[in-house]
Predict the structure.
Amino acid sequence: MDEERPRKIELNDGNFMPLLGLGTWKSKSTSSEQCQGAAETAIAAGYRHLDTAYFYQNEVELGKALRSKIQQGIIRRQDMFVVSKLWCTYFAPEDIPVCLNKSLSDLQLDYLDLYLVHFPVGLQNVGDELFPMKDGKLLASDIDYVDVWKGMEALKATGKVKSIGVSNFSILQLERLLSVAKVPPAVNQVELHPYLVQSDLIEYCKSKNIALTAYSPFGSPDRPKEMHRGNKDPEKLLEDPVVGEIAAKHRRTPAQVLLRYHIEQDIVVIPKSLKPNHILENTKIFDFTLDEEDMSALRSLNRGWKACISEQLENHPFYPFK
């Protein structure tokens, strides 16, 4: 792999995070073999950052992939940057370490490089249900994410997680968190792409030295049908003629342009793919640059279209996508 350009950013706690990672959230149709295979392919192709979560229910497969590549001598544990996330049903103080330990055990790891609060709204802890329901309604809890953060700080103190951060947090929520946090979040992982530019959030995070990770960089075209959002869905971003023109100009694919768009802004990006040719293609984003004209053209596509929302929680006071 070409080493001319920096491949990592430094987080506010002094740890380094690779700019490119493999996203692993998949629809239910993905088999565990496919999931493990994609992770092994990615590591062989040079990825050193894997993004997962308790919620994705694929940590056992990713653990096997990591173990296999370590045994083959392709990587050492310290070469990899592994991210997981605290699920919303584990927000009670006594449950936070339980969720982490489950992830560590499934991943066959003794520490995580980065652990994120998956979403600012908590859910009630009912058995092993990811989405506890009653009478057709999602059972939210009123646990405050500020209190959850204290539990995250405690995990960092144990050394089981090297860095801590959040996901899907708004500027107001970050502001409130920073006002009380002993350890500021190192990362905020959010949906970002040219149809959802979020300049204010990008600027705010830069001003507070919080790194951003972009999920769904292609507008999440492979989401399950029931999650599609009609004519305001960003799923066709890869087919946008403006993206196509910039790709042709640089002799690149639209996917590579959409990934480079984030790299250009020092934003970490985690595309997901199961296809070996796409996994490899997505690594080839460090040997070209987008100029200011390209970046302006991409930003001008902004239309506030989100792929990932949680409509059932819209009325909760901690819902981030107001």
Summary: The chain has a mean pLDDT of 92. The longest strand covers residues 161-167. Residues 145-158 form the longest helix (14 residues). The radius of gyration is 19 Å.
